[in-house]
Each structure stands twice: as structure tokens, then as C-alpha cells.
Amino acid sequence: MTVDVSKPTAQIQPEMYGIFFEDINFGADGGLYAELVKNRSFEFPQPFVGWVPFGNVTVQDTNPCFDRNPHYVRVVNDGRLLRAGLDNEGYRGIGVKQGEEYRFSVYARTPDAKPMKLSIELVNSNAQNLLKKEIEVSGRDWQKLTAVLKSPFTDAHARLRIVLETKGTVDMDHISLFPVNTWKGRENGLRADLAQALYDLNPGVFRFPGGCIIEGNSLETRYQWKNSVGPVENRPLNENRWNYTFKHKAFPDYFQTLGLGYFEYFLLSEDLGAEPLPVISCGLSCQYESNEVVPMDELDPYIQDALDLIEFANGPVTSTWGKVRADMGHPEPFNLKMIGIGNEQWDKVYVDRLEAFTKAIRAKYPTIKVVGSSGPSASGDKFDYLWPEMKRLGVDLVDEHYYMNPDWFFGNASRYDNYDRKGPKVFAGEYASHDHSTKKDNNFLAALSEAAFMTGLERNADVVHLATYAPLFAHVDAWQWNPDLIWFDNLRMMRTPNYYVQQMYGMNAGTDVLSLKMDGKAVAGQDSLYATAALNAPTGEIILKLVNAGSKPADVQIDFNGLKKRQLVAGSCTYLQNDSWRTVNTLDEEAIVPRVRPVQVKGQSLKLELEPRSFGVYRLQV
Ligand code: AHR
């Protein structure tokens, strides 16, 4: 192989490798969003879902605490029954750790103004009540009460219990329990371990809030970002697009509290150092469900939502939506640079709507990049007509999705070699290798095929500007879709081999593509090898990414042309290797993790023996 270091062939966008987030598989509620209480506002269509009431407990909505979440519970202890109260089961249990603190809060009032005692309890999965803390409620007006509970035990399936100890009546709403130790210690915060896993990917771009969830099962249940900002208690509940039959699995208890909403997404983007990429409904509901279409002459409110979103992110504090952002604690703009319109949509109905959005955005915010869609899958040519349409509309990027088998990923390492260089850029917005022979495990074959494919993304960085694996998260007890990048239960999380591939790219992107050839051609599958080379301008390092997908070691010599008098002086290799394609990581053991070893370098060439089934990132100092 030969690497030409004299002249980079393309710039690699700093935001190239990123993350795609969607509230699927309990990704937000029950996952990244650290709230431990399910149905905290009693707004689920069946208001006791998630709760087990005991004694005299009813749901009311007269004179509510929150106008957009009007239901609350009334607990009456009439002195005859021993106890009155309710248990919350959490999201497939409540995960608590011994010695960790949890912030309980509730809005409460006593209709007859008598002071009342509530007992707040943590119950383990053997039904033992191991922690009890009393709080007092008094007054006819709603008030927020809080208590910190230090858990005396560790349990992934604990419950929260609230008991009215004194005779009388108490109304309660928005009953909440968060770990004190959230990501960056924020109230209404994120699960620290999961957010850390995102941070560790070094993502350049952060796409949210989906996925199909943007579009909703119906237009009414599409993701409406305006409902996801402002006081968290008053964000109206929305159906989760993944809450019912998908591949015959029913999730009737899956709703969106929107507690992790647009403000929190922007804040997380900032924390991660990733460019936010919100995607917004274009007036078409999910194509796999109801397929509702907003008529063109009724599209204005949808377009206005997009314009207002840009104002929310970037507008001055004197603007309507900039003020909402400032009131939430972030007067500085979030510096939004791009927005996606529609997800996996096609046909003239989509193109017409995208055109209207694009014109309005260009007119008001000419520097904001617009991302269009190329339909649901790159599996065939059914949607090929969309690219010329995207070019005609002059969108900046086109979102391509591919959930294909490992062979497709290996075979498509040169997919972008011949893409139009004069049209929109590519956003590989959802992709994952699906190994159907193992029920789509996150196994090493899938991961290595993605690593191989990604050499082609990087080699073509002049046309491929963004890439995000999907989906991101899955709860081991509540998932609708696999494979996924990060799996978790209520206490632990597991980084898949696919995660480590993403991390190795994200941490080692480099700044410029260098030409790397074998026998005069890009290395895209010959002898089961895949390779790309980059320069990292700030450090002067050369970064090689090499995949050997074969079952035998491969000896390669890499000559570096254009070094002039410079020499390779030091190097290290971060690598993934496994002898079996089927190996997976589990919550108990991560069998596949990157390892690091030094690389012996000398002169202007490198001799390597690439292990079978391996992916290595070589950082070489010159
Ligand atoms: O990533 C899961 C789903 O796959 C997304 O919601 C959708 O865009 C795609 O079909």
C-alpha cells in the first residue's frame, strides 16, 4: 500500500462522526432521561399504569396543579383501612444503588388544610420496605415538597412507595425520583453512565429526536418541540411512536414525558461538543403507520415550527423563543447550524413540502444548512429519483439510511467513490449492520463490517459530511429494535463492539484525507482488506484505519510518499480483534474492547501483520 502525504485529497468535517438519538427501546424515558418514576403525572390514558394504588386512591382533575397535565391522585386515609397510598414500579423496575442519594419530589396539597404526614419508602424486589422517610404536607395550595433518600440497598427492580400516614386527604401530582448523581449533577438530568458513554464517543454531530418518532403514528402525535420546553411539569405527555405493535411486540406503557426535551438536547450537544442536528416533522406522519398528509395550504404552522426552533436555538433573548431559552437558563445561543426536514420520506408529497420548508428557511436564515431525506433505505433504486430532486432543491445534505446485512456493508465500502461531487453532501443518518443469522446481534461480524464500510465514508469525506449509527440505546428488558449501540439495564450499561468501532473513528477522525492505494486502487475489499489514511493537521500525525476481514493474517507494507526528509518516529495502534464473528459483549462482560499496543516504526515505510478479523487504528508520528 502507498500513502501519499504530500497533498490531502479532502477535508474531513470536524463533525463527521456523531450520534443519532431517538426515544426507542426506552432510550429517553426509562433510559438516558434519569427520571425513575413511570407515569409521574398520571397522564397515561390509563392513569394508574406504572402505579399500584392501595386504599382509597382516585384520579382527579379539578383545580389541577398543571393545566397541560391536569390529572393528579387523591389519597384518602379514612382511618378504617390500615394504609392508603401507591407504589411506582419504575421502568421495568427502579434501579437504586446502596449509598447513593435519590431526590424525591412531589406537588401536594391537603384539601381540608390539615397537616398530613407522608411516608416515602424504597421497597426492594423482595417486597421489603428498607427505607422510610417522612415529609409533612399542609395547606390547600399546591406546593412542591422534596426529600433526599439514601438507598440502603442495591436493586435493579426496586419500587417507590408513598403512604399517607395520617387520617385525612392529600392530593399529589408529578411524583418524581431522580438520582442526585445525574450527568453534571443537573436536576431533571440524565443518567450519568449513559451520558458519559456518549461523551466518550467524542461525537461531532448529535441528531435528535429520531427517527420515526419525529413523524409520529399520526400527525397529532408527531414530535412537537414546543411541547418539550418550559417547566418540565407542564410538558404534555405524548404517545411514543414505538409504544405499540411493532413486529408483534406491544408496549402499551411507552409514552414520551418530553422531560428530555429540546432544551436538554441542545444542552447535551453543548456538553458533548457536538453540533446539534434537530430533525422536524415536514407534515407527513410515519410512513409505516397512518401516512397522514398535511395539505400544502395548511403547512404554514409546520414551517413556522421550524423557524421558531431556529429562533429558540439561536435567537436573541429579546426574541419570543430566545426568551424561552433564556428563561430556562441559557441566554447564550446554542449556535445551531443545521436542521433536518422529515425522516425517511419520499414521493412528490415530500418533495413539495421540503421545497416549501427550504424556501422559508433560506429566506429567514440563509446560513442554516437544510438536510433532506433520501427515503427509507439504500437497499434498492426505488428512491434514487430523490437525489436529483434534492439537488434541484439545493438542500445542503441528504440523509441516507441503511440497515443492511454485513455483506452489504463490506460490499459498499466504495459506495461513495462515484457519488456526484456537485450535488448535496451525504449525511449517513442511520445505519447498522444487521446479521440476520444471529437474530441481529451486536456481534463482531456486524461491527467489523461497519468498520470496513466506514473506511469508504472517510475516503469520500469530500462528499460524506456526517455519519451516525442507529439506534443508539436499548434497555435489555424493553426494546423494540436491534441491534443498538449501547445496551443497559436499570443499573448497568454495556458498550457493544459496534460502539467501539464508532469510538475508534470518533476519537481518530483526523482532519484531511490522504490518498491510500493498493496496486493503484483504493483499498475496498481486495484480499479482504479495507483501509483509509488521514492527516491530523494539529499534531502532524498520520492516522491509518485498517480492517482485515479475512480469516488469515495479512502482511502489508505501507510506503509513505511525500515525507521528503521526514521519518516516522513513533506509533501506536488501537485495535479490535476476535477469533469469532459471533462474539458479543454482555452486561456482565465486555469480551470485545479496544486494546492499545506500540507500533515499531522506522524510516518511511511500515511493515504490519494484520491479525485475522481485526480493525486497527494506527497513529503515526512523523
Ligand atoms: O432507528 C430506528 C428507526 O429506523 C428509525 O426510527 C427510522 O428512521 C428507521 O426506520
Instruction: Give average pLDDT, whole number.
Output: 96
Query: The CATH topology of the largest domain is what?
Result: TIM Barrel
Overall 3D form: globular
In CATH, the architecture of the largest domain is Alpha-Beta Barrel
The first-level CATH class of the largest domain is given as Alpha Beta
Could you say how many structural domains there are in total? 3
| CATH superfamily descriptor of the largest domain | Glycosidases
Which spans have pLDDT < 50 for at least 5 consecutive residues?
Answer: none
Tell me the fraction of residues in β-strands, as a range: 25-35%
The number of strands is: 34
Sheet bearing the most strands, described?
Answer: 10 strands, mixed
The structure class reads: alpha/beta
Output the keywords:
622 residues; alpha/beta; Jelly Rolls; 8-stranded parallel beta barrel; 34 strands; globular; binds alpha-L-arabinofuranose
